Amino acid sequence: MIITLAYAIMMFANILVTALCIRAIMSWFVRDMYSPIGKIYAALIRFTEPLIEPFRRILSRFNTGMFDFSLLFAVIAIEFISNLLVRLLFLIF
Predict the structure, then answer these.
(1) What is the pTM of this model?
(2) Burial 10-48 (b: 16+ CB within 10 A, else e)
């Protein structure tokens, strides 16, 4: 039971990180938001934006220039939180 829950937490975190990485790669290539690939990219943005937006708000205070590190910080936070949840799960049970 505990192992299954830990596995589910890690798989969910992996899905989120994969979606963020795909979004980053697609942002380099997708220019037409009305093409079929553009619609997939738009859906991916709607799915991942709630994860990135808080970090973008925090980092906007530091004027990082033309680089947007919010995606990187979102990935780091997802990995940190998922590892913390799994460790706490094994400590509690």
Answers:
(1) 0.90
(2) eeebeebbeebeebeeeeeebeeeeeeeeeebeebeeeb
DSSP string, 32-58: -TTSHHHHHHHHHHHHHHHHHHHHHHH
Say how far apart CA 82 and CA 74 lie, in whole Å.
12
Calculated CA dihedral for residues 73, 54, 18, 64, nearest 10 degrees: -40
Q: Which residues of the chain have pLDDT under 70?
A: none
**Burial of residue 68 (number of CB atoms within 10 Å: 0-12, 13-18, 19+):** middle
Question: Which tokens sit at 2?
Answer: 């505990």
Cα 40 from Cα 44, distance rounded (Å): 6
C-alpha closest to that of 7 among 93, 89, 67: 89
